[in-house]
Specification:
Two copies of one chain form a homodimer.
Chain A (H helix, E strand, L loop, with lengths): L5 H11 L6 H13 L2 H17 L1 E2 L6 E2 L5 H4 L4 E8 L2 H9 L5 E5 L17 H9 L5 E4 L5 H14 L5 E4 L15 H9 L5
Parallel strand pairs in A: 3-4, 3-5, 5-6
Antiparallel strand pairs in A: 1-2
Chain lengths: ~200, ~200
């Protein structure tokens, strides 16, 4: 690699540090950036700096925003007494796509995961408790991922919320709409059976 | 997507324009950059600008370099009378890895490809002809990829070089070392048979 210009190698290394980008891909991306017109490369660099500069967490719900308070928290039409707790900003987008939920969110920015050295103090649980303690919250809907860590985090938070005497719920488990019984795993099926509803 | 901060969406769009990066991956990369410490994000942006600023083509061989003349062309130990013609800078690295070649290179920066609107004037053929015309070149080794476009480009260039009365050669076709006869395609096999050598 001694015949690779240092600046090109540096750029490839930067790409290689991104998640899911291997050595060959990083090299290809670096070559691509080099082949861009100067102004395109500049606006790429600028987009990185601008995202870091402009985007911060909403002081209310901890979601990412470039305004003082995020558009959802600022929206007078949203029911502030219903808080849906999600792990990541992208989960807010997934929920919003369903157009079902009229309340507000709380983004934890992670889940409790001892294996990855993420403890309860590393995610935004304290902020949630303050929000609930400040009053007027009727229901907290746990919407972390239905995997081990998401489950454990939801259980942990619901235990902390219990003394505050508000309703704490969890997204329903069951079959995906459009999926096939044949391919459903047994745990999902047994949860779907457990949660069966009258029709 | 209206609840995505604009600066974050911009950054995801920038990643999405890179080759082989789809929408979901671009979003994930943008989130990742946002989660980096400020100085890491800054050095990423800086690496892009620095690569564009420092890296240019060597005036002799057209390979990418951050020096005035690239290290290979500047190396007195390399045989300047033997020019190996490759399509891309990364092909120089592949050739160098073999540690077999003691001559110098010429990087075309592409191959002739009418389908992609790349004509003979869009790649560095003229520069190669000037180099050869300037004298002292004994042999030009065509090392474009052994595919249709690489072949056609090699044929085109060799025809231009014919009046100059120098040796023009092509990398040998044949079996990959360590490969299995069973899996070799028929074209490669017939080329390997054609080019068989006494042992």
């Amino acid at each position: 690699m001694q015949y690779f210009p240092a600046a090109l190698q540096d750029l490839a290394d930067q790409f290689g540090r991104l998640p899911g980008i291997g050595g060959k891909t990083a090299q290809r991306l670096a070559f691509h950036v080099l082949s861009l017109p100067l102004e395109d490369a500049q606006s790429f660099a600028e987009a990185i700096l601008e995202a870091k500069r402009a985007v911060h967490t909403c002081p209310v719900c901890q979601n990412l925003t470039d305004r003082e308070i995020c558009p959802i928290c600022e929206d007078d039409m949203r029911d502030k007494s219903q808080i849906c707790v999600v792990a990541e900003p992208k989960d807010v987008i997934a929920m919003e796509r369903s157009r079902e939920f009229g309340g507000v969110y709380h983004v934890l920015h992670g889940v409790i995961s001892p294996l990855n050295h993420v403890s309860q103090d590393d995610i935004k649980i304290r902020e949630l408790l303050h929000r609930v303690a400040a009053g007027d919250v009727r229901e907290v809907i746990m919407a972390t991922n239905p995997d081990t860590e998401g489950e454990a985090t939801a259980m942990y938070i619901s235990r902390l919320l219990r003394p505050m005497e508000i309703k704490v719920t969890r997204l329903a488990y069951g079959m995906s709409v459009g999926s096939q019984l044949e391919y459903a795993d047994e745990v999902t099926l047994s949860r779907a059976l457990e949660g069966r509803q009258e029709i």
